[in-house]
Amino acid sequence: MVEVKGVTKIYNGKTVVDNVSLTIPKGKITSFIGPNGAGKSTLVSMMSRLLSKDQGEIHIDGMEIGEYKSHDLAKKLSILKQTNHLNIRLSVRDLVSFGRFPYSQGRLTKEDQDAIEQSLAYMELESMQHQYLDQLSGGQRQRAFIAMVLAQDTEYIMLDEPLNNLDMKHSLQIMRVLQRMVDELGKTIVLVIHDINFASCYSDYIVALKDGKVVNQGMKTNIINENVLKEVYDMDIHIETIRGNRIGIYYT
After folding, report:
1. Which of 36, 153, 154, 212 has the smallest number of Cβ neighbours within 10 A?
2. CA 200: distance to chain centroid?
3. DSSP 8-state symbol, 164
4. How many C-beta atoms lie closer than 10 Å to residue 176's C-beta?
5. What is the pLDDT of residue 171?
6. Tell me: the pLDDT tens digits for 230-243?
7. DSSP 8
8. Is the pTM of this model over 0.90?
9. In which order are the strands placed within the sheet that holds 55-60?
């Protein structure tokens, strides 16, 4: 379980995350939703220790995140940021092998190779494992980065806008594979996402943020409703139930 208690982050005198407290349930997909500037990405960066917090505490399985040694934390929690541009030319397999660094320190063992093979297979990348990343489509490249995270074999996975710049087909593929990772592998996934309908269809738990504060949090059925979304986005979003999912209609 991840527990965030009174966490605050201030940039240049501006509070971008303001006294946030929340709990991430284990073995579920939790989505952070909210408008631009709500503090979603900053909060995820603090939860993964990529960014220091100014106030508050973050506990992972009962231990404050600052008390973890780096290599121990890297075996428990992985993060994929929304910008994944690399200046070196890498094959898909080379990228995925980076996920084993906390275990191998660059000297891959048979166990590491097996984990790489399993991750490539899980993300259906075997046929393109020797291709370079710059030869892939955006969706294929994102699957390769998720395979790297999967090879890292952490219980907690944090993804900052994993659907960024993906079309509908590839966005759907990514969300389905994340759901499989929870259902089949027991992962706990936290993601920042802008599409409330993807959040509604594939999340178990949703945290709605605005102006650095938590507006509401809870099971998705309690968050995807007109009153909560009006408070978060300052716009009227009609909700309809389609095939058992609550879908926001905001195009008209």
Report:
1. 36
2. 15
3. T
4. 12
5. 93
6. 999 999 999 999 99
7. E
8. yes
9. 14-24, 2-11, 55-60, 63-64
